[in-house]
Amino acid sequence: MEKNKEKIIFSGVQPSGELHLGNYLGAISKWVEMQNEHKCIFCVVDYHAITVKQDPEILRKKIIEAAKIYLASGINPEKSVIFQQSAISAHTELAWILNCIARISDLNKMTQFKDKAGKKQESVSVGLYDYPILMAADILLYNTDAVPVGDDQSQHVELCRLLAKRFNSQFGDTFKIPELIIRKEGARIMGLDDPNKKMSKSAGSSANYIALTDKPEAAMKKIMKAVTDSGKEIIFNKEKKPAISNLLTIYSLLAEEPVKELENKYKGKGYGDFKKDLAEITAEFLIKFQKKFNSFTDEEVKEIMDEGAEKIKSVAEETLRRVKERVGVIQ
Ligand code: AMP
Ligand code: TRP
Questions:
Q1: Domain positions in the chain
Q2: pTM of the predicted model, to two decimals?
Q3: Active-site residue flag, 176
Q4: Could you say which of 30, 39, 62, 198 is catalytic?
Q5: Which residue has its alpha carbon closest to ligand 2 atom 3?
């Protein structure tokens, strides 16, 4: 991406399950860095969350919680827009039109669907299958230049680019083609209980992840219990030492110390010392984070999201109007 030029940035997180350190380090913390230089739009993608069964009361709470997590992470509503996806109906309308551009074969390539649906491909919702199209609509409505996400979303952003290009070639130049932004380290934080699987809110065990709302003491215990590799050296080597490399990445990002320096710092020391320090750093991070999280009332957060939607609604509506004109449904 061209440096020092204001770009439009769009990203989002689903308000479901427990948001965890992987979401923060892989995506949200990157957003915070970007908001000083760019025009950023961060969406709470509630329509994505209902692609799997949700309890309405819990969903309502999770929507507020996701927005609070953005704010506690340092997203500043004076600089960036925070809004709820379902507040702007252009998202689902554009998704329908893009559904008619996308092919079954495009969606059949999506590996996340295969992972999520597993053996139940015939019984999961149509929404779960179709969700990358809604995600493409989210991005394209705002003339987005770049989309910062974790590694697991790169295929979906690629699909968005493909659909935008296909639409443009069929109907004339309409959409800007967005770039994918993946951070070099931290784009794929792995599970604490299994360094070969990504940290995930849908993991079977809560020992897999550190939720951003975990009690600091509980998080410390999870770090102390995290799986390690054979040998005892603290060195970064994703193939040979996946567990320690993952913990080093988390440490490095939370403490803002390069991995190389951490390797030196822990030369001659064992996993126990290293984990104790990481546990403390994690607890400190969570204490600060949660203090900020708790400083917002639900009412305040709702207001921030309503104002956010109000600010950008016209951009989405204008894009949708252009698209409808191009496909021939507006006279
Ligand atoms: P989701 O929780 O699926 O809505 O993901 C929200 C954002 O967090 C997306 O940009 C994901 O790519 C990112 N993300 C989710 N899990 C991880 C992980 N284990 N490591 C890094 N980024 C992640
Ligand atoms: N699908 C993304 C996820 O599960 C969330 C998402 C929805 C998103 N729409 C988006 C991310 C648009 C970036 C841009 O993580």
A1: 8-182+297-327, 206-292
A2: 0.95
A3: no
A4: 198
A5: 13
